[in-house]
Write the structure tokens for this entry.
Amino acid sequence: MSDAKPTILKIGGSVITDKNGELAARTEVINRLAEETQKANLKNLIIVHGGGSFGHPTAQKYGIKEGLKDNAQKVGFAETHHVMTVLNGLVMDALVWHNIPAFSVAPSCCVVTENGRIKLVEDAVLKMLLKMGFVPVLYGDAVLDEKLGFTVLSGDQLVSYLARKFSADKIVIGVDTDGLYDADPKLAKNPKLYAHLTLSELGKIRKKLGGSTAADVTGGMLGKMAELVPAVEQGIPVAMVNAAKPNRVYKALMGEAVEGTVIEKE
Ligand code: IP8
């Protein structure tokens, strides 16, 4: 039994899938991340993964995020959840075969949102799993929504909620860049990586980048950060590292020095 504060690990969908493909999992990356998680051997861990080329194309095809407008979308809601369970199955395969007591918890079965924001969470099972030393594994999912009928719940909103709910020790975000840059690292010539940011520095960067041409991708990153701000405000630090590169997630889980961006309250 454990009452220690959990670490929350988010693995981005763009790391574990090929976003240019459809239903294209990167099983070798999933395996390596399972190996790093096993090596870190944390006593109290929650894992959340994103949708990548599984959840996003299907959700987009049927307009799931915008809610129920037409009965024909219902099969799309079912399909979006289903493809997420398929990706989750691959993640679970790797974790369990690496001897990690990982246990899959479908967000759609314990979370209801209101206009896309988490409204209700049945967390009895989660609490008990944590207390017993299991590693709950959740993911971005198609969920029921009190106002919209249904919508898409991002893994990042879930991470922020869980971190605050369970007073997490830290959040590790595994993405496919080295961290948070002052410009889109995939487009800019000499982007500068922020090694450490306080919340007020993060606020300033957001304004600075507001009108930049890189708004889309960087906006995605900043959108991610915006979701995490309430957790940082509560004193929970966030480490953003490149999960596509070996050992970065391991080092971040262990609290070792690693290339990436740390965001702290002050
Ligand atoms: O990749 C979205 O989760 P995310 C999941 O964490 C779906 O934003 C169903 C698109």
